[in-house]
Design a protein that fits this description.
heterodimer, A: alpha/beta, seven-stranded mixed β-sheet, four-stranded antiparallel β-sheet, 11 helices, about 20% strand, B: mainly alpha, MetI-like fold, 2 domains, ATP-binding (chain A), ATP binding (chain A), nucleotide-binding (chain A), membrane (chain A)
Chain lengths: ~375, ~325
């Protein structure tokens, strides 16, 4: 499942990627997903052959700076991408509860509709705007339930909705409230309750706490993690807050310019980053524990996806870049010491190209 | 309920202001009604009758403005709007009540049709934007861009004069007795078809464009994406989530256009010689018939107010965010 891009195919072959394993069977497998924005002759390639696996029961964190394609990945994988976004290639395999596997991108509209919410539920970025302003929240939870359980009576669905609200700590009489009568934090809880209505296998959360204050962020995420322990769903958590991910995620994938550049267990990414970008990203946050250190940040600014350099997209900002970085695009493969469950997309890890790894990436 | 009461009070106040203005404005105009009437009748009224006319108009006594105002209200509440000059001595109230139903019936129905059809088409185009349906837009905009009287005249030329499918003027077959018979009602429909068609054609583009644009805006709202993600049937997403929110601004414009039904149909009724309130107003203006003008203005003002009030309440029913709780 390693990505290969024609210009660097020969190099990619050197480090044929192994699958990162953290136990469990895969529940959602994204393979070589590519997305373009724009239909013209010169579309912007926003995702380029992204592969990502979510295992059953795990929390997978997806991090990266704004505009790197995190949300696009979530929308594309669930086929919610709005025009002018266009999926140009890839597969998204979902393993059902009974073990059957289906490619979401090739389902008929009807099959897709029945999969949605039932297997994959999403909590979106805008807590404030995710609820229909003209319907009571009870009705909005109920219509999702009834769309998938046509036999269920309205009152039974309403009971379920009340249960769900209690689950996220909102009194059930709030079912009769309109969205504008709730605070931002409550609305996001309602969204989470709504997402859990059909006990989905996968919960995708796209920056679920962006618009909320820090205390509320923590409360909500803790609640989700607690619910996950109880109900056993898998989570894809998209955020630019790496320190948050380090705490709650089992595995972290770091994206840069529409590609995944590093993927590893959360603790490994935090303590021993292997990609210069991941290292820079971690250097941009104050550490949660341990001695104080200088925040370094990453020089330069995020790349323009419509004018990416020929080689590694991070090369212009990378302190270790060499000629080969500027000419050939690296692919996701094992690290230099072939660590278990780790993938990185960087020429520094190719022994044929570089003799030694910079010390900061070799800890 | 408290909200409704507050709105009602507001509209009562507005109505009072409008009626008061309607009382004062003609009194600020130069000239006096008796001389005007005698002038209009061009010698058919004996100048000796001047005094009796003054008595008739209540101008013989030297009443103060305030007394006149109180009297005006008293007469108004009895439904007395005075006597028309042109149709002397027919009461204005009678002329207005005769012409109003024609306008409300014809233009009201046409406006509702234009709103419903336009909103539905707009919903479809907005939802499936970028398809062939988009080409409906310039076609419909063309009809609203051409001057209305021209559209009316062309329609008469083509369908009434050349093809002889429809009558060119009037509101029903004069050989029939008005009444609730099938013959009469179908005749009204037949005579009203061309004027209604032109009203619909000229106004439907606005509804289509408004709804389409709102649909495009609303379709990219997060809650519509959420509705998709919930796996709701497309029909439910389009109607329950996208169109349900997109229609809100349409409802406000609809209310305003209902208000203009009574006042804004002047040209249509002139072109088609349709005996509605617009035609009456046109006659009143061109013959300096002040009492009739005043009556028409009053009816127009009140109908705008009533339409706004209805729209206000409908909007509150449709959008929970406008319900103030105190």
């Amino acid at each position: 499942m390693s990505a290969s891009i024609t210009t660097t195919a020969e190099r990619g072959a050197v480090r044929e990627g192994g699958r990162p394993s953290s136990g469990g069977e895969p529940v959602l497998e994204i393979r070589d997903l590519s997305v373009d924005y724009g239909y013209g002759d010169d579309p912007t390639h926003v995702l380029r052959k992204v592969s990502l696996t979510l295992n059953r029961g795990e929390v997978l964190g997806l991090a990266g700076e704004s505009g790197c394609g995190k949300s696009t990945l979530a929308y594309a994988a669930t086929r919610l991408l709005a025009p002018p976004g266009l999926i140009t290639s890839g597969e998204v395999w979902l393993t059902g509860r009974d073990g059957t596997r289906a490619d979401l991108l090739r389902l008929s509209d009807r099959e897709l509709r029945s999969t949605r919410w039932q297997d994959i539920a999403i909590v979106f970025q805008g807590a404030m705007s995710s609820l229909n302003p003209v319907y009571r929240i009870g009705r909005q939870i109920v219509d999702g339930i009834l769309a998938h359980r046509p036999g269920l009576s309205r009152s039974a669905a309403a009971e379920r909705a009340a249960e769900l609200l209690e689950l996220v700590g909102i009194p059930a009489d709030r079912l009769r409230s309109y969205p504008h009568q709730l605070s931002g934090g409550m609305r996001q809880r309602v969204m989470i309750a709504m997402a859990l209505a059909l006990e989905p296998q996968v919960l995708i959360m796209d920056e679920p706490t962006t618009a909320l204050d820090v205390v509320m962020q923590r409360q909500i995420l803790e609640q989700v993690m607690e619910l996950r322990d109880r109900l056993g769903f898998s989570v894809v958590l998209i955020t630019h807050d790496v320190s948050l991910l380090v705490e709650v995620a089992d595995r972290i994938a770091i994206m840069y310019a529409g590609e995944i550049v590093e993927q590893a267990d959360a603790g490994d990414v935090y303590r021993r980053p292997r990609h210069p970008y991941a290292h820079g990203l971690l250097g941009s946050f104050p550490p949660l524990h341990g001695p104080r250190r200088e925040l370094s940040g990453i020089p330069g600014s995020p790349p323009d996806l419509s004018r990416l350099p020929q080689g590694c997209p991070f090369a212009p900002r990378c302190p270790h870049a060499t000629d080969v970085c500027r000419e050939a695009r690296p692919v996701l493969g094992t690290t230099r010491s072939a660590e278990h469950g780790r993938l990185v997309s960087c020429h520094l890890h190719d022994p044929e190209l570089r003799d030694v790894l910079p010390a900061e990436l070799a800890r | 309920m408290k909200f409704l009461a507050r709105r009602l009070a507001f509209y009562a106040l507005t109505a009072w202001a409008a009626i008061t203005m309607n009382f004062f404005v003609p009194r600020l105009l130069p000239g006096d009604p008796v001389t005007a009437l005698i002038g209009r009748m061009q010698g058919r009224i004996d100048s000796n009758a001047e005094h009796s006319l003054r008595v008739l108009f209540g101008l013989d006594e030297n009443t103060s403005m305030w007394e006149q105002y109180v009297q005006y209200w008293g007469l108004l509440l009895k439904g007395d709007l005075g006597l028309s000059f042109t149709h002397f001595p027919t009461p204005v109230a009678q002329i207005v009540t005769q012409s109003l139903p024609w306008t409300v019936g014809l233009v009201g129905v046409a406006t509702i049709i234009a709103f419903v059809v336009g909103t539905l088409i707009g919903t479809a185009i907005g939802w499936r934007r970028g398809t062939w349906a988009d080409s409906l837009l310039p076609v419909s905009t063309f009809f609203s861009a051409v001057p209305y009287f021209w559209l009316g005249l062309i329609t008469i030329t083509v369908f009434a004069v050349n093809l002889r499918w429809f009558p060119s003027n009037g509101s029903y077959d004069r050989g029939l007795l008005p009444g609730l018979t099938w013959e009469f009602v179908s005749s009204v429909g037949y005579y009203g078809f061309l004027p209604a068609l032109t009203v619909v054609l000229s106004s439907v583009a606005g509804w289509i464009l408004g709804m389409r644009n709102m649909m495009v805006t609303v379709s990219s709202e997060d809650y519509v994406t959420v509705a998709h993600a919930k796996g709701l049937p497309s029909r439910q997403v389009v109607l329950g989530y996208a169109a349900r929110n997109a229609v809100l601004p349409q409802v406000s414009s609809f209310a305003l256009s209902l208000g203009f039904v009574v006042g804004g149909t002047l040209i249509m009724e002139m072109v088609f010689s349709y005996q509605g309130i617009g035609y009456t107003l046109y006659q009143a203006v061109s013959t300096h018939d002040y009492p009739l003008m005043q009556g028409c203005f009053l009816v127009i003002t009140l109908s705008v107010l009533v339409a706004n009030m209805v729209a206000d309440f409908v909007y509150v029913a449709l959008d929970p965010r406008t319900r103030q709780e105190s």
